[in-house]
Amino acid sequence: MKWNVIRIAAVAACTLGSAAASAQSVEVMHWWTSGGEGAAIGVLKKDLESRGIQWIDMAVSGGGGEAAMTALRARAVAGNPPTSAQFLGMAVVDWANEDFLSDLTEVATKENWDRSIPPALQRFAKFKGKYVAVPVNIHRPHWLWMNARIFNDNGLRPPTTWDEFNATADKLKAKGILPLAMGGQPFQEATAWESVVLGLGGPDFYRKAVIEADPASMKSATMLKVFDQMRKLRGYVDRNFAGRDWNLATSMVIKGDAAMQLMGDWVKGELIAAKGTPGKEVLCIVAPGTQGSFLFNTDFFAMFKVGGDRRAMQLTMASAVMNPTFQETFNLAKGSIPARSDVPMDKFDACGKQSAADLKAATAANHVYGSLAHGHAQPAAMQRAYLDVITKHFNSDMSSKDAVEALAKAVVAAR
Ligand code: GAL
């Protein structure tokens, strides 16, 4: 259905607003349903409740938020959006463009958000100069997580290049240990793929191939190697990976059923929820070859244009999410680092501290880019074009040559 049709229907019904929410409550759509994610959203819920705002939960499970976005669209089409929703960067732009989102500039100006939100995030939080979303975190999707006991017992060192990764995985496989825990969902495969693109091609190649969607880069020798490496990864996962959630793959690494996982730092939230210490039972290292660069994804909360009686609650929620103490507590549970650049990092674990320091260095080197898998590199239709090919390749015996051809074609078609 066309967005303008949706918009007409939604505007007509929006004034009525959601039946569930009232002037004293916020109904919040999100996809944070794993152990660590649930703990983090609990921090927000508690914070709002302490301000006299009742929380109405609209959780739609499914990592990466694909299912949540589908559910949200259905609500918006029916003219009954929630008070607030979780969005990834490009989705904020999309929904703002369709005039669904409330202007938060009033509170942003009062609290001088311009000073504390890094420019890379302002790009998504602002639409036509007005704030329409509040960033809550900065996640880094390109990490490698390793079971410390398996690595110690087998005298292995964390791999820092893809060749080292393959050698390590081969050794593990030969000993009958599952090298890689993975789930089978497009966002998980794309999370691994973008780490391989950055790791094998470097930051300039990532910029060209992913941010600029340059067709020549798709057909390059480097991209062939990227798909070769993806085929290698496929050989390191178990037979039951299809449809598995990312957090179940994480628990395989925590339990020692698998040695490694390529995933973002929301993994840390699972470790913490399982009473572990990131960097101790499960080691963290940036994905092979990606040292010096920083891919990011940020979760934003945006407010829908709903009845005027709920505007005060929306502005209070926006201000609460930006509160520095809240950002510290929330991100300690979530595994990410604060979106505000002025929150002290002393309470964060070693991986969190590394993330903050790496972000600073990569910013200075101009090597900070949005994640494709997590909605910060391309608008939805173009992102889908990439993910379809990545998933198709990973789940079949498609050759690297056919994959690069398909990718080049899909990207041109999605322009
Ligand atoms: C990301 C999101 C994270 C994390 C992950 C898995 O897209 O930004 O907060 O929850 O999905 O669900």
UniProtKB/TrEMBL annotation:
Superkingdom in the source lineage: Bacteria
The record's subcellular location field reads: Periplasm
Q: Where is the signal peptide?
A: 1-23
Q: Which UniProt keywords apply?
A: Signal, Transport
Reported function:
Part of a binding-protein-dependent transport system for a sugar.
Q: Which PANTHER family match?
A: ARABINOSE-BINDING PROTEIN-RELATED (PTHR43649), BINDING PROTEIN COMPONENT OF ABC SUGAR TRANSPORTER-RELATED (PTHR43649:SF28)
Family affiliation: Belongs to the bacterial solute-binding protein 1 family.
Q: Give the protein's recorded name.
A: Probable sugar-binding periplasmic protein
Question: What organism is this sequence from?
Answer: Verminephrobacter aporrectodeae subsp. tuberculatae
